[in-house]
Design brief:
Elements lengths: L14 H15 L6 E2 L11 H14 L15 H12 L10 E4 L2 H7 L9 E6 L3 H10 L2 E6 L18 E5 L11 H14 L2 E5 L25 E6 L1 H4 L7 E4 L5 E2 L2 E2 H12 L5 H10 L2 H28 L3 E3 L5 E5 L6 H12 L1 E2 L1 E2 L10 E5 L4 H15 L1
Helix pairs in contact: 2-9, 3-9, 10-12
The structure holds pyridoxal-5'-phosphate.
The site of pyridoxal-5'-phosphate has 13 residues, from helix 4.
C-alpha cells in the first residue's frame, strides 16, 4: 500500500510548541516572575447567558421522547440557517437557505472544501497567513503561489493580473496581521477572480470585530461576488464557540464552474462525509443571533476591542508601526530596531515577561514582525502594556 506522500512535504509546525517550550523553561528558571500571555488566539470570556440558556433548554429537549433529536440535516437545522440568513440581510446581503451550510467550525470547512477542486489547480495564498490554508493544499499536492503582504501594501496584497490562479485565499480581518480590506480592494479581487475563472475562498472568521461601517464584513457586499466566492464564518471568535464548535459556510447557488454548481457539489460532499453539528450546539448558536444574544456577544467583542485599543495606543505612543487593533483582535507590529521576530520574542519574555507570537511563524514576510492579541483579560493586558512601554520607551 502507498501512503499520501504529500504529508512528507509538510513542514513541522513548530510555532506554538516552541513558544510553549521557551515559556515553560523561562517560568521554571524564574518561578517568582508573573508571565503574561498576549500570544493566544483563543478567547477567554465565557459563552453569553443567552447561549447558555438556549443550550440548557436544548439539553432538556433531548431528555424527553417528544423533544429528542437524533441525526439532524447534514447542512444544519433550518432554525439556525434562518438566523444566519437574517444576519446577512441586516447588511443588505440576500441569501437563500440552500446557500447556508452549518458546520462544526471554519477550520474543518476551510480544509474540507478542497474536496471540490482537482489537484491540478494553482492556489494563491498571502504570506504571512493562517497556516491551515497552506498545509491543507500541501496535503493534496497542489501548486502554491504566494503573494507578498508587507508594510508597503499595509499587509493587504492586491491582485497582479500577470499571475494566473485558480483558487485564491483571502482572510479579512486578517489573522495574523489584523488588516482589513475595504470595498474597493475586495472589488479588485472579485473582478480578478471572475477574469481568471478562479474561486475565492473568503475567511470571515473575524467579521464581528469590524466596527467601521464602511468596511465589508462579507465578500457578498461586493457586486458579483456570488459568481466567484465561497465564504467561511465561525462563531468561535464572534461568540466564544472555540470549544463549543459551530460555524457556517456560504456557497452561492450562482457559483458555477464548467457548468457545474459548487453548491451542489458541497451539498453532496457534506451529506456524504458529515453528519451535522449537534442539536444543542445549533440551539446555542441560534441564540447568538437573537437581539439578546447580539447585545451580549457585542459587549464581549467591545471588551476585547478595548484591550486592542490599549495595546495599539501604546504602539502609537512608542512610535512603533503596526496594522490591526481597530477592527480586529490582532495587533501586528514591526519589531523595534529591526529585530528578528524570535529575538524580539526572547527579549520581551526575558525583560517584560510578556509572551507574543513571532511573525516568522506565519510565513517569510512575517520575519521582523510580531503578533499581540486582545483576547486576554483587562488587568493583564494593561500590566503587559505598561511593562512593554517601560522596556521600549
Ligand atoms: N480562520 C481563521 C483565520 C482563524 O484564525 C481561525 C482560528 O483561529 C479559524 C478560521 C478557525 O475557526 P474555527 O474555530 O471556527 O474552526
Amino acid at each position: 500500500m502507498k501512503l499520501n506522500q504529500n504529508y512528507s512535504n509538510l513542514k513541522d509546525s513548530y510555532l506554538f510548541s516552541t513558544i510553549a517550550k521557551k515559556v515553560n523553561a523561562y517560568a521554571a528558571e524564574h518561578p517568582d516572575k508573573k508571565i503574561i500571555r498576549l500570544g493566544i488566539g483563543d478567547v477567554t470570556k465565557p459563552l453569553c447567558p443567552a447561549v447558555i440558556q438556549a443550550m440548557h433548554d436544548a439539553v432538556n429537549d433531548l431528555s424527553t421522547e417528544a423533544g429528542f433529536h437524533g441525526y439532524g440535516p447534514e447542512q444544519g437545522y433550518d432554525f439556525l440557517r434562518e438566523s444566519v440568513k437574517g444576519y446577512y440581510e441586516k447588511r443588505g446581503v440576500a441569501l437563500q437557505l440552500d446557500e447556508i451550510f452549518i458546520s462544526d467550525g471554519a477550520k474543518s470547512d476551510v480544509g474540507n472544501i478542497l474536496d471540490l477542486f482537482d489537484r491540478d489547480n494553482t492556489v494563491l495564498i498571502p504570506d504571512p497567513v493562517y497556516p491551515v490554508y497552506v498545509d491543507t493544499n500541501i496535503m493534496d499536492g497542489r501548486r502554491i503561489l504566494y503573494m507578498d503582504a508587507n508594510a508597503q501594501n499595509a499587509f493587504l496584497p492586491l491582485p497582479d493580473p500577470s499571475v494566473d490562479a485558480d483558487i485564491i485565499y483571502l482572510c479579512s480581518p486578517n489573522n495574523p496581521t489584523g488588516a482589513v480590506y475595504n470595498k474597493e480592494q475586495l472589488a479588485a479581487w472579485v473582478n480578478y477572480a471572475i477574469q481568471k475563472d478562479a474561486v475565492i475562498l473568503f475567511d470571515a472568521a473575524y467579521e464581528a470585530f469590524i466596527q467601521d461601517e464602511t468596511l465589508p464584513k462579507s465578500i457578498y457586499e461586493i457586486e458579483n461576488a456570488k459568481r466567484c466566492a465561497i465564504e467561511f464564518c465561525s462563531l468561535s471568535k464572534t461568540a466564544g464557540f472555540t470549544g463549543t464548535r459551530c460555524g457556517y459556510t456560504i456557497v452561492p447557488l450562482e457559483l458555477q464552474r464548467n457548468g457545474v454548481s459548487l453548491n451542489k457539489l458541497w451539498l453532496r460532499r457534506q451529506t456524504t462525509k458529515f453528519n451535522g453539528t449537534s442539536y444543542a450546539v445549533q440551539k446555542g448558536a441560534q441564540a447568538v443571533f437573537t437581539p439578546e444574544g447580539q447585545k451580549q456577544t457585542r459587549e464581549t467583542i467591545q471588551y476585547y476591542l478595548e484591550n486592542a485599543k490599549i495595546i495599539s495606543d501604546a504602539m502609537d505612543e512608542l512610535g512603533i508601526w503596526y496594522t490591526g487593533g481597530k477592527n480586529s483582535p490582532y495587533i501586528w507590529l514591526k519589531c523595534p530596531n529591526d529585530m528578528q521576530s524570535w529575538d524580539f520574542f526572547d527579549y520581551l519574555l526575558e525583560n517584560a515577561n510578556v509572551v507574543g507570537t513571532p511573525g516568522a511563524g506565519f510565513g517569510k514576510n512575517g520575519e521582523h514582525f510580531f503578533r499581540l492579541t486582545a483576547f486576554g483579560n483587562r488587568e493583564n493586558t494593561k500590566e503587559a502594556v505598561e511593562r512593554i512601554k517601560q522596556l521600549l520607551k
